[in-house]
Amino acid sequence: MRIIRTKDYRDMSRKAANVISAQVILKPTSVLGLATGTTPIGTYEQLAEWNHKGDCDFSQVSTYNLDEYRGLTHEDPQSYHYFMRQNFFDKINIDLANTHVPDGANPNADEACSEYDRIVREAGYPDLQLLGIGRNGHIGFNEPDDHFSKGTHCVDLTESTIQANSRLFDNADDVPRQAYTMGVQTIMYARSILILASGPEKAQAVYDMCFGPVTPQCPASILQLHTSCTVIADEAALALCPEA
Ligand code: PGA
Prior knowledge:
Its EC number is 3.5.99.6. By secondary structure, the protein is α/β, with parallel strands linked by helices.
């Protein structure tokens, strides 16, 4: 793993945007795997600014998001599809037909998940997969478990994830209890991975991801086995990794 230490959130966001921008400049038809959450918002803002200035063209890019809440339609303001439009897609020159998020509105989990696996596979898997990390080391909604997941699947969210995500809802009872998420194997198929972390509440997860054993108890730890994984994290998130 390549670890890049940044001063703060803003510095992390700019460096991450630089990596993604370079990918898109080098390969205008890039397939990007994208993530939701608070962490990538600054990265998306920076990319939208460069897009606006004509420095980063998304017209031929296609995107595949990691996950979606089960039971929410694309129009639901709490859905990840809506989040992506608000924070990124509506601010750049991407063709919305080339953006993909698992279909949370399909109550048939097996169908929704196998369909998503099919389209990600047919796209040839991401050239670059952007990730955040949960406080418990999750990636996507792949929570700590006794095994690593494979393809897209339906998960029950853990209490800690429901609590962490409730800040974006009126109250914790409104947070959906299930989600469709790309599996760890699919994430590992990406040709390169960029994982971001900011803030002291991520410090333990970042340490475990980079220096702990490779274990499904910390799903992000499998990224140690990826041939091209870059971690961009700020001082606070790297507080337990002084040697990095
Ligand atoms: P956050 O979430 O960016 O909102 O902290 C990251 C994650 O849970 O993957």
